[in-house]
TrEMBL record:
Lineage: Bacteria, Bacillati, Actinomycetota, Actinomycetes, Micrococcales
Alphabetical keyword list: NAD, Oxidoreductase
Record bears the keyword Glycoprotein: no
Gene Ontology molecular function, alphabetical: glyoxylate reductase (NADPH) activity; hydroxypyruvate reductase [NAD(P)H] activity; NAD binding
Gene3D superfamilies listed in its UniProt record: NAD(P)-binding Rossmann-like Domain (3.40.50.720)
InterPro entries recorded: D-isomer_2-hydroxyacid_DH, D-isomer_DH_NAD-bd, NAD(P)-bd_dom_sf
Any single GO CC term annotated in Swiss-Prot or TrEMBL for this entry: cytosol
Protein name, entry field: Hydroxyacid dehydrogenase
Domain (D-isomer specific 2-hydroxyacid dehydrogenase NAD-binding): residue spans on this chain: 125-302
A matching Pfam family: 2-Hacid_dh_C
């Protein structure tokens, strides 16, 4: 259902009773151009216009937010009494919800970012299972590792074909990771909060079944949101149950993993890891995680790609314009 544009609880008014233009806040001048002209009685404005006092907070009904980096902007959301909806330049929105006025709908950018994030999640595991990081180090050391010897890792090169890989999280990213790994002939076992049957008839196991699967898995992929049920899900006990030499991948949220426990397990050679998200972020230059053997890190860049750069601006601007025109925005990620 479209958001109710005529709901009087969202019609902003100035102190003197004059109706203010219904406002959608965008992040750049490019968005102003891409969104097209707003309808009568509405306007597009930059966040800078609000911050600098050029527009009235009471007029703002819709706002774009630039991903989890928008710390300062999110602090201003509670000062927008007529805010109806926001859209983030991210898939996750855990960093935002505690700062929203009650009843505000959250739209994310899964339409643009899901495939590229799933790509990162799958490729990180594939690289680790093929021992690419170890081979790259061997190249730097001018050291030839024979294909018939373990050499690259203590447990040998596992590979993807025939491997058992657990994928935790069955949102768009988790499903995308699973599909990509299955294309490489891995045995993928899907997990979510509750047991269910997926859209293609695949079985999805509950987290309560993890204990029986962790010792059998060659890799575990995390594509989970951050919430009370997932924070520090991967702790010392979880890691101790993993198969020796297994790989942990994470493209969800860094705080799903206990970093200290991961460092200890990786230093002992019990697990390896391919991480696009970590805790803390950004990772300080002197943090010990950087130098742990068997751990590869990318800087929360899972969605970054030419595809994302080419499509995110038009998608954001289109939603801002659609809101002002009273069009259906689809189902929010959170409300």
């Amino acid at each position: 259902m479209p958001l109710a544009m005529t709901d009087t609880t969202h019609v902003p008014s100035s102190a003197c009773g004059a109706t203010l233009p219904r406002t959608a806040l965008v992040l750049s001048k490019e968005h102003l151009e891409l969104a097209g002209p707003p309808p009568e009685g509405a306007r597009l404005a930059l966040w800078d216009d609000l911050v600098d006092g050029r527009i009235e907070p009471e007029s703002v009904e819709f706002a774009l937010l630039g991903g989890f980096q928008s710390r300062e902007l999110r602090e201003r959301l509670r000062d927008l009494p007529n805010l109806v909806a926001v859209r983030t330049v991210s898939i996750g929105y855990d960093w935002l919800v505690d700062h929203l006025p009650p009843g505000v709908a959250v739209y994310n950018s899964s339409d643009v970012m899901t495939d590229t994030t799933a790509e990162t999640g799958a490729l990180g595991l594939i690289a680790a299972l093929r021992a690419f990081p170890e081979h790259l180090q061997a190249q730097r050391d001018h050291r030839w590792i024979g294909h018939d010897r373990r050499g690259a890792t203590e447990h040998g090169v596992q590979g993807v074909v025939g491997s058992t890989i657990l994928v935790l999280g069955q949102g768009g990213v988790g499903r995308g990771i699973a599909e990509r790994l299955e294309a490489f002939k891995a045995r993928v076992v899907r997990f979510a909060r509750t047991t269910r049957t997926g859209a293609r008839g695949e079985r999805v196991h509950a987290f309560t079944e993890l204990d029986q699967w962790l010792p059998l898995a060659d890799a575990v992929s995390l594509a989970l949101p951050l919430n009370v049920g997932t924070e520090r899900l991967v702790d010392a006990d979880f890691l101790s149950r993993m198969k020796p030499g297994a790989v942990l991948g994470n493209v969800g949220r860094g705080r799903v993993v206990d970093t200290d426990a991961l460092i200890a397990a990786a230093r002992e050679g019990r697990v390896r890891a391919a991480l696009d998200v970590v805790d803390p972020e950004p990772l300080p230059a002197d943090h010990p995680l950087w130098d742990v053997p068997g751990v590869s890190i990318t800087p929360h860049a899972g969605a970054s790609s030419r595809h994302m750069r080419d499509n995110i601006g038009p998608a954001l601007a289109a939603m801002a314009g659609a809101y002002l025109r009273g069009e259906d925005l689809g189902a929010p990620a959170f409300s």
